Amino acid sequence: MSENEAVVTAPRVSVVVPTYNEAANLPHVFALLPEDLHEVIVVDGRSTDGTIETAKVLRPDVKIVLQNRRGKGNAMACGFAAVTGDVIVMLDADGSAHPGEIERYVAALTAGAHFAKGSRFIAGGGSTDITRLRKVGNWGLNLVANVLFGTRYTDLCYGYNAFWTQCLQVLELDPSGESKDEKRWGDGFEIETLINTRIAKSKLTITEVPSFEHPRIHGESNLNTFRDGFRVLTALVVERLRKPVRVPVRVPSQVPAAELAPLVDVASVERALQAAAPAERPARVVDLTAVEERTASR
User: Fold this and answer.
1) What is the average pLDDT value for the chain, to the nearest integer?
2) Angstrom distance (rounded) from CA 239 to CA 148
């Protein structure tokens, strides 16, 4: 093998799951997780329904991280800081994102991408949850992002993404600080926009992956269409003015780092995604009564 050939390895996959009162949803989500994951990290935001206890019952090897502020962005930053794997997958705990798609994301990364961006609006993707208003808002914000950053995103506001752990150095997310019941800039739903724009500004390779969004199983979303849409728009303006981080990101699938290709062989990505398409599999049966009894006893 020559020094310029790509070396494709089986990466250790870390799944980061932010939670806030998701005890009723975790049995469904955990039952669909791939069996060969390196680690599952649950980042909890002071749940009061036994979410942490439920996670431990369902998966004894789960790693629990307590976020130090409020908001999804802070939860993701705290979870990323605890990762020990090669690949990070961002997975919501409400059941809207199917864990069986994780293989697609990993396939895109091992095919040469730095960042695998989930999209509901490309062939193979879809949604039974997004409202017409949110769809229009997402389209408008997506257009602004593509004009400002020269990207070709089709689904800016979708949070099901994956990337090599080495990309954290260009994201510059800060989970430090005392534990306080507050939300700072970057701690909210604008986290996906910060990640998407910082990856793009750093000239890393991006591949979109088709994903299907399902309705939340239990509970209500904390997303506010207008408030969080404004935060995303603000994030686009702030990130356009912010200086990008330009460092060579070394990933296992690309050798040497100094010769990282700016584009991905689309044909090879499509072949990898087709090969990795999740087959229909029965979910592992979880004894919900046992979970509730164990949770109540605590």
Assistant:
1) 83
2) 9
